[in-house]
Amino acid sequence: MMKQTFVHDISHQLQSAIFSSGLAAKLICLFCIIGYGLSYSPQCVRILTVIPGHVMPPNFWIWTFLTHTFIELHIWHTIIDVIVVFLYSKMIEPLWGTKELLKFYFIVTIPNALIVTFTYFLFYGFTFKEEYLFERPIYGLASFIGAYSVIIKQIMPDTVIATTPFFKLKQDHVPLLIIILSTILWVAHAVPIHFLIMLSFGIIISWTYLRFFQIHQNGTKGDMSSTFS
């Protein structure tokens, strides 16, 4: 009975989030679903994901810095992406507006793809393995998922998620927690290395933008509060 109630509550919250979400969330999720469908085509994966060896001349496939986030190779990754985007955007988009959320999306995902690409070039420089240039595509929404955890940390840092006999898990702890969990998953070969890099730099880039550069409606810039350090 408890399990059925839990599933019902989650289902109800997701339905509510979908119907009450803004345009930005709907667009991102729509493209994620379309991207997963396209992932069944090896050719589409090749031309829509970031492949470091293809973004350099003479290929210069720079559009992949825009399209890579919408490709996922596993259905459960797409499901997680859609659920997180809808649930978090329900809180964020009404506060920020569609334009600011889409701006934030591009600020996080495009530099992130550039950083992971540069990292792969470094891996190639140290190992001389061409797989880092041509056989390890960079894809997925991990950078934006990591960025969402930073926004929630900013909005409600003291909200308690879970209580244990030893400590209280707060929203403030989530960014570090998901980096630790992602590292464990990578060590266990459950996720590829680019997932960990994208998630980590998604958190770093989003925190930097929110801390120092985001312009608020009242004209102030950034968030220098002690709760968002």
TrEMBL record:
Q: How does it sit in the membrane?
A: Multi-pass membrane protein
Record keywords: Transmembrane included? yes
The record lists the membrane-crossing segments as 21-40, 60-89, 101-126, 138-156, 176-209
Q: Which SMART domains match?
A: DUF1751 (SM01160)
Task: Identify this protein by name.
Answer: DUF1751 domain-containing protein
Origin organism is Adineta steineri
Record localization:
Membrane
Q: What domain of life does the UniProt record list for this protein's source?
A: Eukaryota
Would I find DNA repair among this entry's keywords?
Answer: no
- Which controlled-vocabulary keywords does the entry list? Membrane, Transmembrane, Transmembrane helix
* Cellular component, GO annotation: Golgi apparatus; membrane
A biological process (GO) annotation for this entry?
A: retrograde vesicle-mediated transport, Golgi to endoplasmic reticulum
